[in-house]
Amino acid sequence: MSKLDDDIGARLTAARQMKGLSREEASKILGQGFSLSAVQAHENGRNALRPHTILRYIQVYDLDCFWLLTGSGDPGRLSDTLKTILSALSKEDRATWISIGERFAAGRPEV
Q1: What is the mean pLDDT of residues 16-33?
Q2: What gap in Å lies between CA 106 and CA 50, rounded to an integer?
Q3: Number of C-beta neighbours around residue 12 at 10 A
Q4: What is the pTM of this model?
Q5: Which end of the chain is more exposed for a tag (fewer CB within 10 A), N or C?
Q6: What is the DSSP letter of 46?
Q7: Do the Cβ atoms of 68 and 8 come closer than 8 Å?
Q8: φ and ψ at residue 18, rounded to 5 degrees
Q9: Which domains, ranges and CATH numbers included, belong to the chain?
Q10: Residues 6+ apart with CB under 8 A from 85
C-alpha cells in the first residue's frame, strides 16, 4: 500500500497499545468485520481503510480522527464534535450511516 497506509497503521497500533489491548482483544471488541487478520493488516498498512472502518476504530479506541489520519493533535481524545454527533444517533441511525459509508466506499452511493 502507500506510506499513508503505513503511517495510519502505525497510529492504529499505538492507539491499541495505549488502550492496553492485544490484537485479539481489539478484534473481539471491534466486532464483525474486524478479524484478527484484518486488524493486523490495518496496523501493517496492508489494507486501505474505508470510512466505516475508520469510524469504528475512532469509536472503540476513543481517537481524534484528525490525529489518526494525519498524526497531528491529541491521539487519545475523540473530538467533542464527533462525540456529540455519535451520542445523538440511535443505534439504528449509526447503522444507517455506516451502511451509507460502505455503499460510497464500494462505489454505489445510490440509496
Answers
A1: 95
A2: 9
A3: 22
A4: 0.68
A5: C
A6: -
A7: yes
A8: -60, -30
A9: 3-78 (1.10.260.40)
A10: none
